């Protein structure tokens, strides 16, 4: 374990601070998570990491759970001012882990239950949907390339560690949908459309792909055209629509 870093101008700290921005995450192939819960979830999932950084107090606290984490050569002690500089939250727990960006290696679209996110823009919504899919026992979530960056700190916090439990993949949805359909997985698109059926009309199925569209614009026409059926959640009150994450949660649990 290295000596304590006390300056925000330290080269390593300056480089890690840049990981708050997507551009630098992509350039370096690294991202950073923050807080005891995410760090412990990553470690329990045996994720390879580059650095564990924390104040002496934070490292002492996590040492009680995972002593091997703190004794690693990858562990870096930082002071409070450096921790506040690295933090993406107002009330930081002063512990951080730097991991490599990378998609799951062992996944197939030939079975299972999946959520497909078509250009979703809100990191909180995306993180919440991934967490819900995990809770409901789904195999994974596929994001279109124009969806929000899953390594965004807000997305990471909203996922609450579920990113380490299920497949979270960025891929062209048209390609994924075709592969699922070739393997007899029905694809249902959530959208308001004259040909859409109410959710309760659908039979429970052992395998399914559920498409959730952009918060403002819905499912793209290219994706909607190739889905097997369109569905919607009936609204009984005066609200015009449901939040994307809430709608996704209702549909996910209906088919879970």
UniProtKB/TrEMBL annotation:
Belongs to the class IV-like SAM-binding methyltransferase superfamily. RNA methyltransferase TrmH family. One of its GO terms (biological process) is methylation. One of its GO terms (cellular component) is cytoplasm. This is rRNA methylase. InterPro entries: Alpha/beta_knot_MTases (IPR029028), MRM3-like_sub_bind (IPR053888), Ribosomal_eL30-like_sf (IPR029064), rRNA_Methyltransferase (IPR051259), SpoU_MeTrfase (IPR001537), SpoU_subst-bd (IPR013123), tRNA_m1G_MTases_N (IPR029026). Residues 32-105 form the RNA 2-O ribose methyltransferase substrate binding domain. It holds the Pfam family SpoU_methylase. GO terms for molecular function: RNA binding; RNA methyltransferase activity. SUPFAM superfamilies: alpha/beta knot (SSF75217), L30e-like (SSF55315). Coiled coil: none annotated. Keywords: Methyltransferase, Transferase.
